[in-house]
Amino acid sequence: MRKLVQTSLITIATPVLIICSILMTEDKPADPVTASAKSHQTLNKEQTSKTFPQQPELKEEKVKELTRAFMDTLVQEADESYRVTNMDTKAELFAAFESIAVKETVEPYVSFYFEEKPDGLYILPTETPPWFIAENPYDMVQLDNDLVKVKQENETALHGAYTIEIEFVYDKQWKIGNVTIS
Predict the structure, then answer these.
(1) Which domains does the chain have, with CATH numbers?
(2) pTM of the predicted structure, to 2 decimals
């Protein structure tokens, strides 16, 4: 009798245990590391789309607008003694560039072309540097989601033949991130 009860319990318990085991593992992957990684990837995708919205494409108009604004800001109005008339400090000049270019790109230009004195900001009376010419053809290459390189080959009477490469970076808005002239 005891053997009959044991056999009956095993016969009944085995399918129940198998069903319970299947039900308990149906929603769980076999590998907890994979499960963690998958949930992390899903979370990252959700966070990325919420935290970092897709930036607008860099268009030709924006390239021309930023390069023109850079040069317009660099070339300041000055009086007969070359004292800048619209601002008194380099800090003000850097502030004028904030929406156009990153500070590290602007610094060499400001250091070369401007001198801050006790009575104001002075501009060096010289020619402008070789620069982007909006009418000339150029190549645009998307290097990353937030990085575009514009390359242009030019020749002018003043500067001769030169190549300008301008990197545009996106940080809440498109800006000039780096300028290389060769």
Answers:
(1) 60-181 (3.10.450.420)
(2) 0.69
